[in-house]
Amino acid sequence: MKNKKSKVNELKESKELALHYMQTLVDVARESFLILDSDLRVISANPTFYQVFKVVPKKTIGKLFYKLGNGQWNIPELKKLLEEILPKKKVVKNYEVAHIFETIGEKTMLLNSRQIDTVQLIILAIEDITDKERLEKKLAEYVEKLESKVEKRTTELAARIKELESMNKSMVGRELKMVELKKEIENLRKKVKNGNGNGKNSKNGNHKNGKLHNS
């Protein structure tokens, strides 16, 4: 009997000590934390939890987790986490849950939980990633719009480049024709000039011949 009482006392002391350390750590955490007993009743909650989910200690401590906030935590995904997944795995990381609360509206939460069998306690960390999700959604929409604009602009530029290339070919063709025309004109000038020169030489030669003939 004494041994049984001694073990019960040891378990109680260990549980109280573990709870003390847990509370010391979670009180300064930025995420919301809950410490639950094996029946899923709330033993402790940190200030962040009260602030984020707009609840008070009086309506939180000693209450069944699912009944908090008029049953707002009675979420199927959360039940699955605490009643099916956690008991088997003992540790659950980055379990995402989305829920619409009556008082604070829609929230997207990232849950991390650990079951400590030696002291029969469950520690549950709840990270509110609602703003992060919204930001990522807006960023994705912005990137999609930007890609659409870039694609449209690229298509427009490709069409413009094609048009310029066509104009360039046309202008180059004209330039080549102009060069050929200039060459033809120059050749004609040379022919005309050479033709005039021969005419003069012929005339001068006849005149000289005439003079020699008279003498």
**Would you identify the CATH H-level superfamily of the domain at 2-128?**
PAS domain
Gross CATH architecture of the domain at 2-128: 2-Layer Sandwich
In DSSP terms, counting alpha (H) and pi (I) runs of 4 or more, how many helices?
5
Strand order of the largest sheet: 2-1-5-4-3
Structural class: alpha+beta
Radius of gyration: 47 Å
Q: Uncertain spans, ≥5 residues at pLDDT below 50?
A: 207-215
User: Class of the domain at 2-128, according to the CATH hierarchy?
Assistant: Alpha Beta
Walk me through this protein's architecture.
There is one protein chain. By secondary structure, the protein is of the alpha+beta class. It has a domain at 2-128: PAS domain (Beta-Lactamase), CATH 3.30.450. The chain contains five helices and five strands. It has helices spanning 2-26, 47-53, 68-71, 76-89, 130-214, and strands spanning 32-37, 42-45, 91-101, 105-116, 121-128. The protein has a five-stranded antiparallel β-sheet, sandwiched between helices. The longest helix is centred in the C-terminal third of the chain and has 85 residues, at 130-214. 10% of the residues are buried.
Give the topology, please:
Blueprint: H1 2-26, E1 32-37, E2 42-45, H2 47-53, H3 68-71, H4 76-89, E3 91-101, E4 105-116, E5 121-128, H5 130-214
Antiparallel strand pairs: 1-2, 1-5, 3-4, 4-5
Pfam families: PAS_4
Organism: Candidatus Nomurabacteria bacterium RIFCSPLOWO2_12_FULL_41_10
Protein name: PAS fold-4 domain-containing protein
Short key terms for the protein model shown above:
about 220 residues; alpha+beta; Beta-Lactamase; five-stranded antiparallel β-sheet; 5 helices; PAS-like_dom_sf
